[in-house]
């Protein structure tokens, strides 16, 4: 189905006032918030920004072929001065999602859609879900931190380089339209708290949504943890989703299970807690785990998690429940989960002998603690060496907590640079080191400015049966230093230092330093 709607029709349907002579018949075939990516026939969504109004770039959008602009009263004159028809709306950011959905003829309604939110686990759950569905023969797409990839009905895989965890709403709708045209059956999306506040996932009613957990992160954006939780919880409402899956391991999940405005099914890794699915046993099995899960009514089933650790056991159960919500259940679905394999940059195994080398995206205190605890529990682990840091221009309060977590759970802590962005890397390291040195632990602590040098030191210090965790950046292929993204991949660097051969190509596209 080709995109397109006349400006007058669109204005009426989103409740906007149409300004400009002969504007009614303008045909809109696409939408964009970025004047640099506008193409002929696009609706340019000129939104108010933190530093400059998008209407300041309306002339650039018009020259690129925009057919109309969507803006507010503050941007109206700048847009009309270009000669573009203007759709005037009091909340153009919110309206841009609905506008893009209408331009693309509501593509989400032509797919089964799954949304996953939570501080940690979004990428793992969506990627495992996609792998399991592909194993079941269902053409599936995933949109999130690691980019966007989808399979069409003819078996062809398509990749789109996206940077944000959840792209802007016009991009989300355009990607869903591409999936629908290709014959993709299911679209799985990571839905960040930013996405909910900024209306990026509006105009989609997900068939199923999932909450994984909540821990401190993004307090540079959300004033408090309550605001952070409210953003996540807003996904569990009839205007956004039909049914939910909620992990009740933490208090936030238990609150959500009680307050959700849609039907939810709950799960937990705590055998003493009540839920619709309770993990009663986790038995390590190689670099994975065999689970026993008690269902409502007392039935117990077996399920294999393809990665080790309690949090990946939880992810496997989340995927099982999401599959059931969209019509895939039983032994075949559970077998597909067992074959789902690793997730790029999430507890990704780089080397097994003589040193266990792992790269993980853990960039919060909670995620780092879980990753270190998981690796400590791997049979035959001797010393645990962690390379870690913290990102610049992000929540500073979590830096000492991450340093403390590393010192309490690892034998050797190497504090280095993550994505310093515009901040002084030495100042970031100092805040992390403050927490590491304050920990009542006997960890050996090093400060190494260059990330490559830090990984080299970890490999030099490691002996047979030691484990190295390189934490924080996961599958990112760039490092943001002073606003410039330099090529850097933790996995390639660790592989090179340990002299390990590279694996077969990933099914997910590479991506630069992510905007977390």
UniProtKB/TrEMBL annotation:
Residues annotated as domain Mur ligase N-terminal catalytic: 30-75
Entry's EC annotation: 6.3.2.13
EC class (word): ligase
Task performed by this protein: Catalyzes the addition of meso-diaminopimelic acid to the nucleotide precursor UDP-N-acetylmuramoyl-L-alanyl-D-glutamate (UMAG) in the biosynthesis of bacterial cell-wall peptidoglycan.
Protein name from the UniProt record: UDP-N-acetylmuramoyl-L-alanyl-D-glutamate--2,6-diaminopimelate ligase
Pfam families named in the record: Mur_ligase (PF01225), Mur_ligase_C (PF02875), Mur_ligase_M (PF08245)
Record: residues binding ATP: 118-124
Family per record: Belongs to the MurCDEF family. MurE subfamily.
Residue span(s) of domain Mur ligase C-terminal: 345-474
HAMAP family, A to Z: MurE
Main location: cytoplasm
Example GO molecular function: UDP-N-acetylmuramoylalanyl-D-glutamate-2,6-diaminopimelate ligase activity
Pathway field: Cell wall biogenesis; peptidoglycan biosynthesis
Reaction(s) the record says it catalyses: UDP-N-acetyl-alpha-D-muramoyl-L-alanyl-D-glutamate + meso-2,6-diaminopimelate + ATP = UDP-N-acetyl-alpha-D-muramoyl-L-alanyl-gamma-D-glutamyl-meso-2,6-diaminopimelate + ADP + phosphate + H(+)
Domain Mur ligase central, residue spans: 116-322
Binding site for meso-2,6-diaminopimelate: 394, 418-421, 472, 476
């Amino acid at each position: 189905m080709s995109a397109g709607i006349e400006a007058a029709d669109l204005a009426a349907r989103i409740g906007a006032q149409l300004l400009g002579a002969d504007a009614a018949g303008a045909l809109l075939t696409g939408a964009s918030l970025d004047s640099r990516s506008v193409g002929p026939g696009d609706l340019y969504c000129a939104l108010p920004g933190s530093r400059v109004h998008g209407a300041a770039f309306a002339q650039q959008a018009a020259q690129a072929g925009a057919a109309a602009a969507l803006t507010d009263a503050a941007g109206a004159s700048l847009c009309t001065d270009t000669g573009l028809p203007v759709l005037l709306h009091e909340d153009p950011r919110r309206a841009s999602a609905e506008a893009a959905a209408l331009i693309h003829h509501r593509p989400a309604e032509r797919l089964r859609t799954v949304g996953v939110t939570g501080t940690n686990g979004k990428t793992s759950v969506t990627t495992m879900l996609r792998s399991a569905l592909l194993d079941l023969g269902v053409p599936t797409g995933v949109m999130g931190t690691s980019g966007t990839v989808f399979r069409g009905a003819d078996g062809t895989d398509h990749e789109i380089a996206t940077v944000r965890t959840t792209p802007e709403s016009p991009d989300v709708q355009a990607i869903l339209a591409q999936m629908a045209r290709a014959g993709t059956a299911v679209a799985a999306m990571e839905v960040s708290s930013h996405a909910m506040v900024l209306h990026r996932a509006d105009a989609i009613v997900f068939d199923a949504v999932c909450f994984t957990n909540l821990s401190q992160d993004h307090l540079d954006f959300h004033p408090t943890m309550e605001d952070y939780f409210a953003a996540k919880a807003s996904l569990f409402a009839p205007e956004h989703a039909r049914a939910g899956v909620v992990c009740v391991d933490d208090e936030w999940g238990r609150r959500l299970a009680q307050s959700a405005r849609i039907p939810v099914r709950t799960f937990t890794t705590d055998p003493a807690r009540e839920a619709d699915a309770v993990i009663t046993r986790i038995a390590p099995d190689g670099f994975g785990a065999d689970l026993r899960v008690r269902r409502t009514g007392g039935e117990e089933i077996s399920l294999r998690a393809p990665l080790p650790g309690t949090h990946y056991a939880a992810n496997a159960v989340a995927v099982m429940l999401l599959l059931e919500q969209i019509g895939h259940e039983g032994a075949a679905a559970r077998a597909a989960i067992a074959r789902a394999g690793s997730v790029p940059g999430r507890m990704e195994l780089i080397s097994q002998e003589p040193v266990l080398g792992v790269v993980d995206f853990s960039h919060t205190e909670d995620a780092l603690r879980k990753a270190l605890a998981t690796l400590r529990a791997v049979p035959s682990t001797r010393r645990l060496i962690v390379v870690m840091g913290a990102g610049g221009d992000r929540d500073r309060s979590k830096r000492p907590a991450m340093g403390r977590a590393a010192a309490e759970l690892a034998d050797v802590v190497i504090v280095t640079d993550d994505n310093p962005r515009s901040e002084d890397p030495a100042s970031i390291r100092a805040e992390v080191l403050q927490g590491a040195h304050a920990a009542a632990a006997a960890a050996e602590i090093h400060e190494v400015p260059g990330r490559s040098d830090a990984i080299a030191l970890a490999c030099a210090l490691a002996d047979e049966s030691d484990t190295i965790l390189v934490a924080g950046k996961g599958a990112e292929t760039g490092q943001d230093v002073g606003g410039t993204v330099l090529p850097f991949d933790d996995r390639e660097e660790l592989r090179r230092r340990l002299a390990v051969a590279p694996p077969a190509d990933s099914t997910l596209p590479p991506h630069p330093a992510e905007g977390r």
